[in-house]
Write the structure tokens for this entry.
Amino acid sequence: MKMLALILIPLMLLSACQKDLTAQQRKLQEKLPSDAELTAAGTLIAQGQVVHIADGDSLTVLASNKESFKIRLQGIDAPERGQAFGKYCKEQLGQLTNGKTVQVEAYKHDKYGRIIAKISVDDSDVALTLLRQGCGWHYVAYAKEQSPRDSKAYAKAEKQARTAQKGLWQDAHPVAPWDYRRQ
């Protein structure tokens, strides 16, 4: 009897997690164009053209159905608009994406209604490029939502940019955006 319980309990938990994941995917699917595809990892893939850059980690994508979607880059936190290097990092994101067709790998949406996603241009991870340029912090508070490979690459890119004093790391005392927002 104990052996049966040891087998059934994990199966029940797995089943409950799959239902939650499916519900989360459905909610996300409602926010994306109908041609978005579900990946084996449980993320949704769509394409669109970048039509607006809000700041160093947020942009707007116009999808194939002509609907626009606000996207927050997953895995990084860039300086805010009023913060040192905020304008510079916004410009860097614009150079990488504005007017270009991007691939959106959506994970979830945040409390502001933005889609949290990994954005790629020509198979190049935009957030990773920004970190290499010194335009953000690896957002370790959400690192568990990334693949282990991405999490390691983002942490390494931030460390290398810090060491080379690229972008915001030129500042003697850079203030993390989450600290800036609290002030």
